[in-house]
What we know:
Layout: E1 4-7, E2 14-17, E3 23-30, H1 35-49, E4 54-64, H2 67-82, E5 86-90, H3 95-131, H4 139-142, H5 147-160, E6 166-173, E7 178-185, H6 189-194, E8 197-198, H7 205-212, E9 216-218, H8 230-238, E10 243-250, E11 256-264, H9 274-288
Helix pairs in contact: 1-2, 2-3, 3-5, 5-9
Amino acid sequence: MNHTSDELGTGTARIERPGAAGFVVLSGTFDDDAAGALHTALADVVQSAGRGGKVVVDTRDMGLAGAKALSVLLRARQAALAAGCMFSLIDTDQEIHGLMKVSAAQQRVVDAEINSTRLALLADVRDRLRGDPSALVHDEFLGVADRRTVLDAIIVAAVVVGDADACDLQLYHSKTGVLTIERQRGFSPAFLDFFAAVDAGVPSACGAVLATGESVLVDDIAASPLFADLATFEALMLAGTRAVWSYPLRDARDELLGVLSFHYRTTRPRDGRPELVARTAAQALSVVSPDGRG
């Protein structure tokens, strides 16, 4: 990796990456306007470190003139630990270390409150869906729900309204042309590993959605040529799937956001309304994914 250096347009903030993976030097004063650039730089550093690597942030010449930059540092540490990396902060006078410890304690309180709010919102939308299948896109839900809650609610709707025995929500990554599972219910780790990343060449209902751009409704996987591939067929059979309906989720520009799949344990006709769930899921996903794709 080559040495890179960015001098930000606000304050005296400067971000330098000397070339070593996982290492970044922060100098100057970081105000709230510099927080976005800091977030991008630290996300790149965590990614470059790789799983099991080490992230080192040199803050000896860094000053803080706003809470946002400190929050970004805290989130970067959380992201590094979640990725299995070690996180080290070089801070001679320990000032930023101390601030991060205080912020971490405050963040735990905030996270607990947010989690409680999410659970309450999900319980409320679950109850509403039983009487109103379009509750997923009501303003009283989307107006207060964050991205994580909306994704969870899509799965709730797939079960409550779509009558799915199991389901998965995959998001589309336009740069790679791949679908990855973002939310699911009812599947084993083996199934999730098998379908962890799907492109248009994978013989599956979601792969066929990518290949055709259309919904793929399979009432009996044992009778469908789509599952002639033995490995895919066995993965579905072991999961208990006998029928699967997969729907593309598109935004207002008709750009693909993801795929929502409903899995059923029998081949009998469905009692639910999966088409409605797919339509409202696309609308809700558009709200929390304004750029459309990953």
